Amino acid sequence: MDTGSPRGTQSVARAALLMRLVTAQGERGGARMTYLVAESGLTRPTAHRLLTALKAEALVDQDPVTGRWFPGPELFLMGTVAAERYDVAERSRDIVHALALETEESAFFSMRRGDETVCLVHEDGAFPIRSHVLSEGVRFPLGVASAGLVILALLPAAESDAYLARTGDSLAGRWGQAHGSAPLRTRIAETRDRGYSVNPGLIVEGSWGMGAAVLSKSGRPDWALSITGVEFRFDAARRAELGRALLAHAHELSRRMR
């Protein structure tokens, strides 16, 4: 730890990480302790101690039967207050709905948070076979999912280069060799040329994704619209059609955000 950091900073950071992990699993039947330990890198006793403290403050909750962890009621109350200032999700819901309706694929709105994207809004399309890679609260590092790839590609070159230097090939260790620095740079260049990103089943085999950036008033790619679906729905001709739809809806939402 940085010796100049306030006392207790490490504990706060660890507790915040556990809350993010619990929240990301909230719609997936809750978070198992084995998952929280593996994802956080904490020892089981440390994770349990922090979760118990968070539960006492109602920031997380535990199912007494399954033992799984869920976001607590206090998080809901805090979120309700914070939403008055930060709730960009509500501004996107009708556009996400329209995108799902037009493409018949699952549609999403994600926000950049540091080196990650977090999904804020999700709506299933009409096509009965769906990809279940993404849902509200799920986070991915920049460059992994289609939303994070298009955001990374449209950042100023100095920022994207700094991110790639910072992560090196660490993404490949978790997400596979296709997420190494060299192939990721290739996908970034392709995304810049097209204007939208394509993820050809690199997270889950057979589950494709595409994304388009939503720009802030200053022109920064702070958010993204994306769609996911099964591979046979994403042939070259249809990808071009879906890309046009994504860009049109992203442009409309960018105007709204400004």
Automatic annotation (TrEMBL):
Task: Give every HTH iclR-type domain span.
Answer: 9-73
InterPro entries in alphabetical order: GAF-like_dom_sf (IPR029016), HTH_MetabolicPath_Reg (IPR050707), Tscrpt_reg_IclR_C (IPR014757), Tscrpt_reg_IclR_N (IPR005471), WH-like_DNA-bd_sf (IPR036388), WH_DNA-bd_sf (IPR036390)
Choose any GO biological process term that the UniProt entry carries and state it. negative regulation of DNA-templated transcription
Which keywords has UniProt assigned to this entry? DNA-binding, Transcription, Transcription regulation
Q: Does the keyword Transcription apply?
A: yes
Annotated ranges, domain IclR-ED: 74-258
What the entry lists under SUPFAM superfamilies is as follows: GAF domain-like, Winged helix' DNA-binding domain
Any single GO molecular-function term of the entry would be: DNA-binding transcription factor activity
Q: Which SMART domains match?
A: HTH_ICLR
What PANTHER family does the record tag this protein with? HELIX-TURN-HELIX TRANSCRIPTIONAL REGULATOR, ICLR FAMILY, TRANSCRIPTIONAL REGULATORY PROTEIN
> What protein name is recorded for this chain?
IclR-family regulatory protein
Record the organism. Answer: Microbacterium faecale
